[in-house]
Every structure is written in C-alpha cells, then in structure tokens.
Amino acid sequence: xxxxxxQKTSMVDYPGLLCAxxxxxxxxxxxxxxxxxxxxxxxxxxxxxxIDEDELLYFLQQRRGKLDAVCIxxxxxxxxxxILPFLQKIKTxxxxxxxxxxxxxxxxxxxxxxxxxxxxxxxxxxxxPSDYARTAGLQTLDLAPVRASIELLKNADIPxxxxxxxxxxxxxxxxxxxxxxxxxxxxxxxxxAFKDSGHLLGKGITAYTKQELExxxxxxxxxxxxxxxxGV
Length: 232
Fold this sequence. Notes:
Blueprint: E1 5-14, E2 17-23, H1 37-40, H2 53-62, E3 69-73, H3 83-92, E4 96-101, H4 106-115, E5 120-124, H5 132-135, H6 144-154, E6 160-166, H7 173-183, E7 186-193, H8 210-219, E8 224-230
Parallel strand pairs: 2-3, 3-4, 4-5, 5-6, 6-7, 7-8
Antiparallel strand pairs: 1-2
Helix pairs in contact: 4-6
C-alpha cells in the first residue's frame, strides 16, 4: 500500500466527521480538471517513495479521540495492492473509513464492501455516457465497470454518495441528465463546482456560476433522493 500524501485534519472529506485524508498515487484516468495531477502521473507511483506505513499508523494511533475517521483518496485507491490489510489495521484503531473511487474497479470494491472495512464510499460520476471518455481524458473507455460499481453501492449496507465535478467545458444539462439516468434511484448525488487549483492536467477549463449549478440541481432532482451542490 503506497501513500503519497496526508491531510492531517479535514472537516469536509467525511460527511459529519473530522478525519485525516490519505492520498494514494496512480490513476487509470486522465481527467483534465483533476486537481491532484501530481498523484496521477506515472512518475509519482514508485513503491519506495511513499510515506512509511508504520509512521502513518503511529500518527493515527496518536490522534485517537481527536479524529473520528480516515478518508482514502487519490489518485485511485483501488489500484493499490494490499489495500484491505491496510484498512483493517486502521479499523483496529477504532476509525471509520471512507473510500473515494472512480468506480472502474468493481471487483476490489465488492471485496472491501463484503469485508466490512468500509463505512462510507464516494464514487465519481464523470459525465453522461456520450461524454464520459472525453471528460475522463481518454479516447475510449468501457463503462461496464462503472455501471457495476453503481449497482454495488446502490445495494450496499453502508452510506454512499455519487459526485460529479461540473464545468462549462465538459458538462451541459443534457449530459448531466444522461449521468442521472446511470444512477437513477440513488440516495445522494452531489454536484461539485469546478475550481482551478493551478495544478490541473488540462487547460482552458471554465466554471459555471453558483446560480447555474443550483439550476442544474433543480433539474436533476428526479435522479436521486438528494441532489445538492457542494464546493461553492
């Protein structure tokens, strides 16, 4: 299990709980609006350049009683071998665990769900099917794994959310409704405002206004029990 970074305290990464966020390297996608470019590019996936696991576990042990949870983000965490034993070590410290994933790895996701290692999952829905590959920075892709992960979460016994980072460059009401059809009947769908971190994989990406994003939320209400705006 390789961890490249840590945010020692976060009030936003685990809904309702104070958490530490751990960042894994590597991703199968190249989303132009990704704000973690340094984690996605292949040069940053080396096994010998991460944070020492024992140091991480010691930090978490010392923070018991101050932190409630740990969020595993990336990159794409499900690319990591050894993720289950690592999460089990965190669970023994008494923490709740949230996983951030892009949904392209339903088999390891199903193993983690069955193991009881996860308490919350946030899955990205990049766009509607017709614009998914372009939004993910690829020429083509197979959405079957994403659809399988959607069904896994919709039938899971733990809380979950779907989330979509929305930009003018890649999203329209039409494409977002196509995305909504993919997750129809879900519990929670969050639209996240695109923000330029200054470290993106792409260029020239523009943002919608808060009002425009709120209008999208209203238009997408039929697709999930809760459709809300985040990050504005």
